[in-house]
Amino acid sequence: MNLTKEIIAQDLFLIIKDTLIISDIHAGYEESLHKQGYFIPKGNLSELQLRIEKTIKAKYIKNIIINGDLVHSFGKLSPKEKYVLKNFMSFLIQKGSVKVTRGNHDKVISFLLPEIELAEQFILGNILITHGDKINKHTTDKNIKTIIIGHEHPSITITHGYRSERYKCFLKGKYEGKTLIVTPSCNMLIEGTDILKDKLLSPYLKNIEDFEVFIIEDKIYDFGKIKKLKKIPFRGVDLIFLTGDLGKANLARERFFENQKRKQAGLPEIKEDKNHQKAVHMEIHNSTLEVLKYCSRFAKVYTIQGNVGIPSKSELKEEKKKFGLKLPSTKEELEKLKVLEPHSAEYGVTRNYLDWLTSLPWGIYSDDNYDIHKAKKILDR
Description:
Layout: E1 7-10, E2 13-16, E3 19-22, H1 29-35, H2 44-58, E4 63-67, H3 79-95, E5 97-101, H4 109-112, E6 117-119, E7 121-124, E8 127-130, E9 146-149, E10 154-160, E11 163-175, E12 178-182, E13 193-194, E14 212-216, E15 220-225, H5 226-229, E16 239-242, H6 250-264, H7 274-296, E17 300-303, H8 313-323, H9 331-339, H10 345-359, H11 372-379
Parallel strand pairs: 3-4, 4-5, 5-6, 8-9, 9-12, 10-13, 16-17
Antiparallel strand pairs: 1-2, 2-3, 7-8, 10-11, 11-12, 11-14, 14-15
C-alpha cells in the first residue's frame, strides 16, 4: 500500500525505491524473556528473516536501513544475544548494503558491529529517517517534507463483543506541517503501544487524533483516523475493579435447582459424580479467565476473590487429586498484571501467555492410539 507517492508499506516494512526500512527489531528480546522466566519458543528472528526474504523477492532492494533499536538489551549482551545478532546481520548483509540509525536501546552497536554504518539519521531526498525517541536536529530543515520514525511500536486493539485482538499498525499524520509516518516494531513478540489508550512515548506524537491508521494483517488495511476509532469499551479507564464471582457456575446452579425440585416432589436428589464436578470446575475456570483476559486489555484489573474464581496452586493440587484435573496455575500471572504498566512489553507478554494458556483445551482428552502402522500411513502421506 502506498502511504505517499514515494513510500510503500509492505508487511511490517517501508520501501522507498530500492531501500527497505525495518524498525525496532529488538534482537535478544527472547533471551531477555527467558531470564525473566518466560519460556517462549525461539524462532522470532527466523520468522522475520522469512518476511524480509519474501519482501525482497517481491521488490528490487539494494539498501536496508534499520531504524533504531536493533538490539533489546541496554547494556552488555550475553554470548547468546551476540550470536543471534551476528547471524541476523550476516543474513541482512547478503541482501544489500545495511545501515542503522541509532535507537535508545543501541548503546553497544558500534562496538559489536563496527563494520555497519551507524548514524542518528539518514536522509533520502526529502525524507528524514530517524528513530523517534527524541526530536532530530534535521526535523525543521526546509527541504525535509516527510519524517519516518519507529520507537513507538504502534498497535491497536479492535474489539467486537467480548473478543479483542491487538494488531500492529502504521500511523500517518502531520508534525509541524510535515508528513510523519510511524512504523511498527518488527519483533513479533512485542505488541507495542495501544494508540487508543496507552501513553505515547515519542516526542513527535503530541496529538494524533487526526492520524490515519493502517493495520497489518494478511495485507495492510486503511482503518481511517484515530478519532473515529476511539469509540471502544473502557476508553479512558485506568483501573477495573471486579468484585468477585467472575466466572459462570451454570452447571452447579442447574444441579442445585434440579435437586430442589426433586426434593419438593419427594424424589431422591441426584448425587454428585466426579464427571459433573469436573465439568463444573472447568466451566468456572475457563469463564473466569475469559472475563479477566477481556478486561485486562483495557486497564489494570483488581479482583476480590468470591466463591467463583481462579484457584490457587494448593486448590489446583486438590482438584487434581479429586477429579484428575490438570489445569495451569494462572493466579501468579494475573497478580503480575496488577503491577505492570499496560504499555510495557512485559505486560503484553504476560497477557499473551494467558491468552495462549486459555486457548488450550484443558480438561478435554482424546483416546490414545498406539497403532504404529496407522501412524506410519499418516506420516507417509
